[in-house]
Amino acid sequence: MKSGESPVVLFLLRHGQTDWALSGKHTGRTNIPLNEKGREQATLLKECLSKIDFSAVLVSPLLRAQETATLAGFGSRIKTCEDLSELDYGLYEGLTTAEIREQVPNWTVWTHPCPSGETIDQAAARCRNVIATARDIGGNIAVFAHGHILRILTAAWLDLNANEGRHFMLETGTLSVLAHERETPAIKIWNAPVDLKSHLG
C-alpha cells in the first residue's frame, strides 16, 4: 500500500459448489450453475457478510459466481468484472487432472500450459487490473470469483510469481481476506468456512 492510498481489504468469495467442481473437472468458461449444496453455501455467505460495509462488489461474469453473489444478498450491487473470469483451460476444459495426466504426466496448471487456453501469467495480468481497480475504490471490496483465478490474484496481491498460487488451497463456498500488516500485503483469513464469523473481528 503506497502512502496516501485509501486502505483496501479484499474479501475473496469462491463461488458455491457445482457438479463439475465436485467431480474435479476443470471449469473455466463453461457456464455451469451451482448445485444444491452450492446454493446452500452461497446463502450462508449472506449471514456471514451482512454486517460488513462494502465499497464495491466485483463479480466474475460467469453464472456460478453471479448466482453466488446474488444468493449472498448482493444482487443489486453486482459490478461485473470480466477480469475475474476463471482461467481459460483451453483443450483441458471439462477434464480432470487425472485425465490430463494420461496425456501429460505430472501435469499441473501451475507448471504446464493449457493448449489453446490461457497462461497463468496472462491471468495474473488480469488480476493486477482487479487489484488496481480495488485500490482506486478503497475500503472493503467483495470479490466473487473462482478457484484458480483467486489463487493467482492472491499471489499478485503478495507480489509473488503467479505460480506461487499453487500453495493456496481454496474450497468452494469459502471466505478469504487479503489486507495489509502496516505497509506489507498479507493474508488475514484463508479458505474459511462461512460459519467462522468470529475471525472477521
- Highest CATH level, the class: Alpha Beta
**Per CATH, what is the topology?**
Rossmann fold
Shape: globular
The N- and C-terminal alpha carbons lie at a distance of: 21 Å
- Report the CATH superfamily: Phosphoglycerate mutase-like
- The number of strands is 6
Query: Main beta sheet, described?
Result: 6 strands, mixed
CATH architectural label: 3-Layer(aba) Sandwich
pLDDT under 50 segments (min length 5)? 197-201
SSE string? EHHEHEHHEHEE
Helix run count: 6
Q: Helix/strand/pairing class, anyone?
A: alpha/beta
Strand order in the largest sheet: 3-2-4-1-5-6
The percent range for helix content is 25-40%
Mean pLDDT: 93
Task: Give the total of domains.
Answer: 1
* Estimated radius of gyration: 16 Å
Measured by DSSP, the beta-strand proportion falls in 15-25%
Structure explained in plain terms:
This protein is α/β, with parallel strands linked by helices. The chain has a single domain (8-194), classed as Rossmann fold (3-Layer(aba) Sandwich), CATH 3.40.50.1240. 33% of the residues lie in helices and 20% in strands. Helix 3 links the parallel strand 2 and strand 3. The longest helix has 18 residues, at 120-137. The chain is globular, with a radius of gyration of 16 Å. The protein starts with 7 loop residues before the first strand and ends in an 8-residue tail after the last strand. Residues 197-201 have low confidence and may be disordered.
